[in-house]
Amino acid sequence: MIGTKLNKTMPELPEVENVRRSLEPLIKGKVVSKIEVRYDKIIDGDTVRFCQVLKDKKILGLSRYGKYLLFRFSNGWTVVSHLRMEGHFRLVDKSKSWSKSTHVLWKFTDESVLAYLDVRKFGRMQLVKTGTEFETTGLQKLGPEPGSSSFIFSYFENELSRHRRNIKSTLLAQSVVCGLGNIYVDEILWRSRIHPLSCAKSLPKKQIRTLWQTIDAIIPLAIQKGGTTIRSYTDANGNAGQFQNFLAVYGRSGQKCRRCGTVLVKIKVQGRGTTFCPHCQEVFR
Length: 285
Prior knowledge:
Elements: H1 13-27, E1 32-37, H2 47-54, E2 59-65, E3 68-73, E4 77-82, E5 88-93, E6 102-108, E7 112-117, E8 124-129, H3 133-136, H4 153-160, H5 167-172, H6 182-192, H7 205-224, E9 265-269, E10 272-276
Antiparallel strand pairs: 1-6, 2-3, 3-4, 4-8, 5-7, 6-7, 9-10
């Protein structure tokens, strides 16, 4: 939908996947006539080359890995985009007036424009040869995605055995499993009955299996529900997510646990607000 804002909050895998699903039909097949970069630091690499390589090229599709979007072009190049805190894309017509938070404009031959907006300027785009994404970008540091053929129980168990830090920080790090952020880690740990400060390598096998199964269940459900809209996230068709209606702990500190009735507690873990039930989420040291 022309002019629709895609997201304004920190996206996790379900939100980025819904951005991908809704944005791809809007831009697939479009040919770039010009790219205008208004803030060079958004581009990771040579800005002039970025614009030159993509000029007159067709967008073949839009894929995703973890929290990254991958724009595929007809000349064998890919733009790897990370939205970070508040980056978002809007497809608009050429008559649109641009705000000061508009940093990159992808102008198409049909006179529509894909605008990248980012109030905090944290987002990044990197141009790489298609097929080298896992060698030359931040993707190389990521673990497997939930539900993928690589995210098997034996792998997960072995990875957790190598980490002495708490399980909340381990899951947020992206190297064991990618795509999880603050919202979904809190929800997953609550459903798995695991305290966020539990030592990752101290989790019994039974709890590891429960955690693994919960990750593989929650993320597809969140994608199906359109992601989580806490403030202003919507997809490219203007649809808000619905998973916030299923949240058991995130944003509910001071309220009663829906499982045992104990008042939920909020603490900081690695600088991130973390809500949990002190009664039914067990600490493993």
